[in-house]
Amino acid sequence: MPEGPEIKRAADQIAQVLARRTAVQVEFGLPKLKQLGPKLSGRKIDAVEARGKALLIHFEGSDSLYTHNQLYGRWVIAKASERPHSSRSLRLAIDTRSASALLYSASDISLWKRADLASHPYIARLGVELLSADTELGAIHYQLENARFQNRTLAALLLDQGFLAGVGNYLRSEILFVAGVLPHWRPRDLDKNTRMKVASAAWELMRQSYRTGGITNDLTRAARLKKRGLSFGRYRHHVFDREGEPCWACETPVRRVTLAGRNVFICPTCQR
Ligand SMILES: [Zn+2]
Predict the structure, then answer these.
(1) Domain residues of the chain, as ranges?
(2) Could you tell me which residues come within 8 angstroms of residue 219 by beta carbon, excluding any fewer than 6 positions away?
């Protein structure tokens, strides 16, 4: 499932073909949304924006389309008015004169007044937006000190979009590793210095992953491993999805721990 960095990169690509262009035709696949097509066709698109794992398309005036891919949704960019053959169902097509942005399989699509978006149930509960240009490191530290989050494990908090928006399964393991903390620790167990480490790791890894297309490993090490012939999947992470393989830093075999049905990967030597 794509996490914040992947969603923001998808939003950037879609923005490249849609932002500041006229949507000559907008079509919806779901019957209950079909009547919105004529209302949006012919209007200019101001901007495309990622919020957590949702993607917003702001039309000129006050209308914004909210889309969330959940597990199956997928955006495809095609030549103008082209509909590549697909076994997936087309749920939204936005054609400009130069390209088309197509959303397949997603069913969580709705039209909002821009002013009301903050009350959308998903957006309203989003925590700190790690990739937003105006988010400061202190905001993450503040979340870790917030009484509301003190007694929950870091493993649970890091997947809670109300804590930090956009963190998913791979970022969770990588943040815990880089901060040198264990998944079952709670914010109240951490001293100020360790809280700072968790905040910095979240901040740095999210940004690095966005910049590099998903690499959370040390970049010098990743470049060296790539040169040695390792695939992207093998060199991109510190510990995520590396069960039994030696930690890059200390050679201890990486361990997989299952918490609430989802995997966390740790190095028992580096994290304690
Ligand atoms: Zn290690």
Answers:
(1) 4-122, 128-266
(2) 208, 212
Give distance in angstroms: CA of 217 to centre of ligand 1: 13
**pLDDT tens digits for range 147-176:** 999 999 999 999 999 999 999 999 999 999
pLDDT single digits (tens) 172-228:
999 999 999 999 999 999 999 999 999 999 999 999 999 999 999 999 999 999 999
Q: What is the mean pLDDT of residues 77-95?
A: 95
Q: Which tokens go with 167?
A: 């963190």
pLDDT value at residue 261 = 81
The rounded Å distance from CA 143 to ligand 1 centre is: 27
- Domain 128-266 in CATH 1.10.8.50: yes
C-alpha 150 – ligand 1 centre gap (Å):
27
- Locus of tokens 């905040």: 199
Fold type of domain 4-122: N-terminal domain of MutM-like DNA repair proteins (3.20.190)
